[in-house]
Amino acid sequence: MSRPSELLAGVDVGGTKIAAGLATREGRVIASARIATPASGGDAVIEAIADLVRRILSDAGVPASDVASLGIAVPAVIDTARANVLWAPNIPGWDKEGTAGSSLPLPHSDKGTPLAAPISHALGIATSLHYDGHAWVMGEWWLGAARGARDAALVAVGTGIGGGLILGGRLHRGRIGVAGAIGWWVTDCAEMGSGRRETHGQLESVASGPAIARAAGRQTADEALQAARQGDPAAVRAVGEAAAALGAAVANLVSLLDPEVVVLAGGVIAGGGDLLLSRVQEIVSREAQPQIAAGVRIVPAALGEEGPWLGAARLAFTDVEAVKGDP
């Protein structure tokens, strides 16, 4: 076991599930667990995060005082100065001003939903927030499929579509902290300005799990993927359109950034990689800048659902160490 305060904790908050875990500074996983994201969203999610971390610490027999930091990955625009969630479209209630009614103490906020402060207060652990695409690429860069790369990109396909970038050996956060939000890439110029971006014209509206399920006439992406394997025409068409859109986006990303590796992650890739990965690789090989395409690797994530919380844990620890180093 690592010495006190050398353990790292991380949480990955998604639209359908919350995953969390505890690891050593070297990245060895000690304990992990997952729960469904409360459908009511908002305050219930905050309480669920705190309860899940408490459960993991209890199961591992680790007191909170042995944990150096806690990182929370959220699919959201974050106010980094206040550590608040400004906009999380996949989680009800997290796109509104402030929050109220939680049993956890919430500090005053004039902008967004406080998250790090109530969690830190409840658990007694230094807590920070991170855009989930950044946490995910950090996890895969630290311990997974992008390890050792100086330039890497990750595209996560699940309830939504996001991503992250490692450029020149550093996480690229961007001006407002959401660099890598590839789900917003325009896929159909004819739909620009139509006001239908949730269902038309952008990568997330074509290739995310809900988009694939909707186009296939199924309840879930898993059902759609299975139907496609069985030759159902609507499902085959939906998956084919998703693969084409994803392949085009990755080809453009490859030509723009010239990375060593692009990691494809998320539930849709985990459940449908056999239907999607080779098609994406084929499109990149054919459509991206030829010399770049010849050398880039397009690979599935290596860490599964542990990638984002591990990356968040690593980023949070880096934040704590940076504060310690301040004069």
Q: What can you tell me about this protein's structure?
A:
The structure is a single chain. Helices cover 40% and strands 21% of the residues. It is α/β, with parallel strands linked by helices and 327 residues long. It has 2 domains: 7-133 and 306-325, ATPase, nucleotide binding domain (Nucleotidyltransferase, domain 5), CATH 3.30.420; 145-300, Nucleotidyltransferase, domain 5 (2-Layer Sandwich). The strands form 3 sheets. A 5-stranded mixed sheet has the order 3-2-1-4-8. Helix 6 packs across helix 7 (233-257). The longest helix has 25 residues, at 233-257. The radius of gyration is 20 Å and the shape is globular. The two termini are 31 Å apart. 50% of the residues are buried. The model is unreliable at 97-109 (pLDDT under 50).
Pick out its properties.
single chain; 327 residues; alpha/beta; Nucleotidyltransferase, domain 5; 2 domains; 5-stranded mixed sheet; 13 strands; 40% helix
What does this entry show, briefly?
The chain is α/β, with parallel strands linked by helices and 327 residues long. Helix content is 40%, strand content 21%.
What would you call the shape? globular
Corresponding CATH architecture of the largest domain = 2-Layer Sandwich
Largest sheet at a glance? 5 strands, mixed
Strand content: 15-25%
Tell me the domain tally.
2
Mind telling me the CATH class of the largest domain? Alpha Beta
CATH-assigned homologous superfamily of the largest domain: ATPase, nucleotide binding domain
The arrangement of helices and strands along the chain is: EEEHEEEEHEHEEEHHHHEHHEH
Strand order, main sheet: write it out: 3-2-1-4-8
Alpha carbon gap, first and last residue: 31 Å
Q: Structural class, judged by helices and strands?
A: alpha/beta
Total strand segments: 13
Enumerate the spans where pLDDT stays under 50 for 5 or more consecutive residues.
97-109
Count of helical regions: 10
